[in-house]
Design goal:
alpha/beta, 12 strands, single chain
């Protein structure tokens, strides 16, 4: 059947083609201008802000007034798997290494989203091993090193008979001397579940060794995987782990001793990180336990009165594996902008920017750092075995199970 092309038909066909071309052009333009999304999980608000500010400089959009990335913060009360169900798939996830990061990496492996191993060039061998010892393809990239540390008042140590802290018994001797001048010789955030569990882990490594700590983390993780995560079952698990020959026995005995001898305050298991910083500012403590991230939030006039050390072992000059969680960038899509930005963040130039902005230690061996504190952390990790992620990330994936574990542990510590 022949269709007679009248002027009216020609106009209608032309109009239809124009509309189709217009829709196609808008769609192509929308795809071309779509911003990649960077998601943050389990990272402090302060560090989200600072890492984001550096990330936005890794790419320039045609409209130079617009940021390169959309930024979203995932709900870290949930496991990463559950948090991602509430959010459109991001292109990059910034998070600490650990069980949740392992989940993200599995997807990247399946989707073959990866980098060549050369992206790790310039990083210390201990940092590289947190990613992979042998793989030629890299699915998560180390960026910044956090650290579990002990901060000691400079004036107090100068006046003390204990002139240096070499082993754990030195901490006890020093704290005992502090009782006459300070309301609380040693303080830590016993009420903050995440920080408290990391403190327990770091203490366990320093007292009982890394193998014991890893065994504890695996035991907790296997227990959670079994699905019997009610309070009664958790209580049974912990009763075994704090008993003689249990993974936490020696650590719990030390902390009980500190509690009974008033080296830590009676309200220590109700103290938050904010309380710890308040005690430091008001000169109520001589020793405080923080992470490097928390250290950076203390007033400069206060923190300059303290010197930072790593958790001492019970023996001098022993090989150590420090609790030093590492912030990773995990590519979650093959978006070219996102992939190129991660590559840049791993270079010396951007490592310097990240370290100066956040105050955390860079993973690159040869780049500028903001101060001696960050340099010390970089050196300690480089000179040690593979850093341990921190018990909170090694054993748990969500806030609910962390809280249940921490609540029962507090009960045992106050017996």
């Amino acid at each position: 059947m022949k269709v007679k092309l009248t002027l009216k038909n020609i106009v209608l066909i032309s109009s239809g083609l124009f509309i189709l071309l217009l829709i196609l052009g808008i769609s192509i333009l929308a795809i071309a201008n779509k911003k990649p999304t960077a998601a943050f999980y389990g990272i402090s608000e302060r560090n989200v802000e600072r890492i984001s500010s550096v990330l936005q400089t890794t790419h320039t959009r045609k409209n130079k007034k617009q940021n390169a990335f959309n930024i979203v913060v995932l709900d870290s009360n949930l496991s990463l798997e559950e948090a991602l169900k509430k959010q459109k798939r991001p292109d990059i996830i910034f998070m600490y290494n650990g069980k949740n990061a392992d989940f993200a990496e599995i997807r990247s492996v399946k989707k073959k989203i990866c980098f060549d191993k050369k992206i790790l060039e310039g990083m210390s061998s201990s940092v590289i091993k947190t990613v992979s010892a042998n793989k030629s393809k890299i699915h998560k990239v180390p960026l910044l090193i956090d650290n579990c540390e002990i901060d000691i008042n400079r004036n107090a140590i100068a006046k003390s008979k204990t002139k240096q802290i070499a082993v754990l018994s030195d901490v006890e001797k020093f704290a005992t001397e502090l009782k006459k001048d300070y309301l609380a010789p040693i303080v830590f955030a016993g009420a903050d579940n995440y920080e408290f569990i990391n403190f327990l882990g770091a203490m366990t490594e320093s007292i009982s060794g890394i193998d014991t700590l890893k065994r504890a983390a695996n035991k907790i993780n296997d227990f959670i995987k079994s699905g019997n995560t009610n309070q009664s079952e958790f209580n049974k698990l912990l009763s075994q782990m704090v008993a003689v020959d249990g993974e936490f026995y020696e650590t719990v005995e030390v902390l009980r001793k500190w509690y009974k001898e008033k080296l830590i305050p009676s309200n220590v298991y109700k103290m938050t990180s904010r309380d710890v910083k308040s005690y430091m500012e008001q000169k109520l403590c001589g020793i405080s336990v923080l992470t490097l991230s928390e250290h950076r939030t203390v007033k400069q006039s206060t923190i300059e009165e303290f010197t930072s050390i790593y958790y001492p072992s019970i023996f001098a000059n022993v090989e150590r594996t420090f609790s030093a969680p590492i912030i990773m960038a995990i590519p979650y899509s093959k978006n070219k902008i996102a992939m190129n930005s991660i590559k840049k963040l791993a270079t010396v130039e951007y490592q310097e920017r990240l370290s100066i902005k956040t105050g955390l230690a860079p993973v690159q061996k040869n780049c500028a750092i903001p101060d001696r504190q960050a340099d010390d952390v970089r050196y300690w990790v480089a000179a040690s075995e593979v850093p341990f992620v921190g018990l909170s990330e090694a054993a748990f994936t969500d806030a609910k199970t962390r809280k249940m574990f921490a609540d029962i542990l507090r009960m045992y510590l106050q017996q």
